């Protein structure tokens, strides 16, 4: 038995994808600010 694995996802494409868009309420905006701050530190 031969197993063939194909790569169908490019990691760069996944980085650009948006899975969730925060809503306009206080908690979600706070989480967004926190997450943006973390992403800036990684660069």
Please report the distance between the alpha carbons of the first and last residues.
44 Å
Kindly estimate the percentage of residues that lie in beta strands according to DSSP. under 5%
Give the low-pLDDT segments: none
Order of helices and strands: HH
Largest sheet: none
Shape: elongated
Number of helical stretches of at least 4 residues: 2
| Range of helix content | 40-55%
The residue-averaged pLDDT reads 80
Radius of gyration: 17 Å
Structural class, please? mainly alpha
Number of E-state strands = 0
Describe the overall structure.
- The radius of gyration is 17 Å and the shape is elongated.
- The chain is 53% helix and 0% strand.
- It is built from 2 helices and no strands.
- 0% of the residues are buried.
- It has 43 residues and is mainly α.
Q: Strands, helices and their partners?
A:
Blueprint: H1 11-16, H2 26-42
Output the keywords.
mainly alpha, 43 residues
Provide a brief overview of the structure:
It contains 2 helices and no strands. It has 43 residues and is mostly helical.
